[in-house]
Structure prediction request, 148 residues.
Amino acid sequence: MSYNRYPKEMKEAIVARLLEEDVVVVDIQKETGVGINTLYKWRDEAKNKRGLSATTKYKNADKWSSQDKFTFVLETANLSEIEFSEYCREKGIYPEQVKEWRDACINANDSTKEANSKSSKELREERKKNERLEKELARKEKALAETG
Prediction:
């Protein structure tokens, strides 16, 4: 099957996986249905193409899962600034991205705590409002019963 039969994003994702060290091409073929010869061709083209390396999968780092971002933050946590910069450069990621992810990881529990606190406050307010409405309804029913 030719390249034109597959969406660009699909090919890029598959090529990124093909360039990983521990990937078995046959497994990708079974998962995607793309012909084995096409997969080998894509992989070889990618390896020969200037600027396309095993770090291609990092180019769309903003689309990573939370777990992948967290793992990257952990991998770089104990590196010096120079090592950190080199590592990011090797992976094709901007250090600023990783710093944002690190901040998000650090603040993750705070936002959950704030959300729970906010939810509890809103729930208390709704309960108070409900009690007021029930009292008002009972008062009006009593007044209606007295007039009728």
Remarks:
- Confidence is low (pLDDT under 50) at residues 50-58.
- The radius of gyration is 28 Å.
- The chain has two domains: 1-59, 62-148.
